[in-house]
Design brief:
single chain; alpha/beta
Length: 120
């Protein structure tokens, strides 16, 4: 169990460091995230599973499971030239989603620091 936790921690640290080096991905605190989405219509994506999404979500978020088979097809329906706000449960999956989105040509991805757990 301890070995699994160490591997998970190192994976999250690696993902975090990668996002900090990519200027197209920004991780912002919940207050800044709330302010941004409150200003108007934004592209807001919850990348958790449908089961997690049904237990509570942020505003008008689109649910698109980053580990689902249709993630890329559905995410490509969004405007790549506009910022996309993403979140998951704790921040790890949203970083994976952000990386995939940048690889698909999105110009700016804003990730909620600490995910939905930090939002509450």
């Amino acid at each position: 169990m301890k070995k699994i936790l160490v591997i998970l921690f190192l994976s999250m640290l690696t993902i975090s460091c990668q996002s900090q080096s990519n200027p197209k991905i920004k991780v912002i605190a919940p207050d800044a995230f709330k302010t941004a989405i409150a200003k108007g219509e934004v592209q807001l994506v919850d990348v958790r599973t449908p089961e997690e999404f049904s237990e509570g979500a942020i505003g008008h978020a689109l649910n698109n499971n980053v580990n689902g088979p249709d993630f890329e097809t559905e995410i490509l329906k969004l405007d790549k030239t506009q910022p996309v706000y993403v979140y998951c449960r704790s921040g790890a999956r949203s970083q994976i989603a952000a990386k995939k989105m940048v690889d698909l040509g999105f110009t700016e991805v804003i990730d909620l620091e600490g995910g939905y757990l930090n939002w509450k």
